Amino acid sequence: MPTEISIGGVCRLADRGVIRASGADAASFLQSQLTNDVAGLDTGSARLAGFCSAKGRLQASFVVWRPGGDEFLLSCPRALLAATLKRLSMFVLRAKCKLSDASDEIAVFGIAGAAATAMLGDAAIWQVRAHGATTLLRLPDAAGVQRAWVVAASGNEVDVAAAPAITAATWSWLEVESGIVTIEPATVDRFVPQMVNFELVGGVDFQKGCYPGQEVVARSQYRGTTKRRTLLFDCEVVPTAGQDVFVRSAAGEPAGTVANGAPHPARPGGTALVEVRLAAVGEDLRLAAAGGPPLHRRELPYDVPLDAAVTS
Question: pTM (2 decimals)?
Answer without folding.
Answer: 0.94
